[in-house]
Specification:
Elements: H1 21-28, H2 40-53, E1 64-69, E2 76-79, E3 86-89, H3 98-111, E4 119-123, E5 128-133, E6 137-140, E7 143-146, E8 149-151, H4 152-155, H5 168-178, H6 182-199, E9 210-213, E10 221-223, H7 232-235, H8 256-266, H9 270-282, H10 284-292, H11 298-316
Antiparallel strand pairs: 1-2, 1-3, 3-5, 4-5, 6-7, 8-9, 9-10
Helix pairs in contact: 5-6, 6-8, 6-9, 9-11, 10-11
Length: about 325
């Protein structure tokens, strides 16, 4: 069994927790894994309650804002209005193994050098959920720092319903205008889009990119760690689009040339773009092994591996 947080093997004596003790400490800041009921009945009750009270996080997936009440013994994650430090995404009926799929792709992103928000799986009564730690809330010494974090929909002065309008070239312009390290963030944007293409993440819309303050109130913004990375083309094979926004005027039939044109638009030297292309291609074996070792069902693993092999060939030719 592998750890639900870092994905590395667990020792038998702590396997029942599903987490390394060091991962518990790093993720939650507690000695014991916090308790939370995530069986189907409880989740439905929580979703209904949180919707009525306005506690849910906007989006397609069911998302619950949680706060950790930390005690020396029996820490608990509880649904509250404010402050919240964690977001829980439970299993849903519409899509199979969604928490396991998101955790896998987020871990893959870590493996290829993409900065991500803290993420993990948490086990309940026969059901797993995906949990992530908010990066715009920093809890220290019984106080909370609230970092300003604006998604690209807001920064581009668009309504939420317009999050699929625009282009990745427009995202680059937003970074160029607002980021305090635009060159580095532009390269990170390219790498995230390249990775998303390889893993079939066709839902990188304007709200799935954000800029975040480097410190509370300092007014300096950088591209936030990546979040909401999912193998959408694997989970929803009926989705024929490869990208949520246009790149080089296209959302389908994306090829190596489109990425190179995009690099030109971003001011990224082609040599640097090709270096990133080769880096992703070189990681194919590792990503396939991670998929094999994941908690996704076997038929989804097969579909995922076939998709990655197909996408990688775009850059091998």
């Amino acid at each position: 069994m592998n750890c639900y947080c870092c994905g590395k093997p667990l020792q038998s004596e702590i396997a029942r927790y599903g987490w390394h003790k060091s991962c518990i400490k790093k993720f939650f800041g507690t000695v014991e894994l916090p308790e939370i009921e995530i069986d189907e009945k409880t989740i439905e009750l929580l979703v209904a309650e949180s919707t009525n009270k306005g506690y849910t996080v906007p989006g397609v997936q069911k998302k619950l804002s949680l706060h950790l009440f930390s005690k020396k013994k029996n820490p608990k994650l509880t649904l509250v209005n404010y402050p919240t430090g964690y977001i829980l995404k439970p299993q849903v009926d519409e899509f199979e193994a969604l928490p396991e799929a998101e955790q896998l792709v987020m871990t893959m992103a870590d493996a290829v050098g993409i900065s991500t928000v803290p993420h993990a799986l948490i086990q309940g009564n026969g059901s797993r959920a995906y949990i992530t730690k908010r990066v715009d809330r920093v809890f220290q010494n019984n106080a909370v720092q609230m970092l300003a974090m604006e998604d690209f929909c807001q920064l581009d002065l668009r309504l939420t319903q317009d999050k699929y309008r625009g282009s990745y070239e427009r995202c680059a312009k937003i970074i160029e205008r607002y980021s305090s390290r635009s060159g580095l963030d532009m390269t990170e944007l390219y790498l995230r889009l390249l990775f998303s293409f390889i893993v079939g993440n066709s839902d990188m819309h304007l709200k799935n990119f954000s800029l975040i303050e480097t410190a509370e109130g300092n007014g300096k913004y950088v591209l936030s760690p990546a979040y909401d990375l999912l193998p959408v083309n694997v989970i929803m094979p009926e989705d024929t689009e490869q990208f949520a926004l246009a790149m080089n005027g296209k959302k389908t039939n994306i090829c190596r040339k489109d990425f190179l044109f995009f690099a030109d638009e971003c001011g990224i030297p082609r040599s640097s773009a090709e270096k990133m292309n080769k880096k992703i291609v070189s990681q194919k074996g590792k990503l396939i092994r991670m998929c094999h070792n994941s908690l996704m069902p076997d038929h989804l693993k097969e579909r995922f591996i076939a998709l990655m092999e197909e996408r990688v060939r775009v850059f091998e030719n």
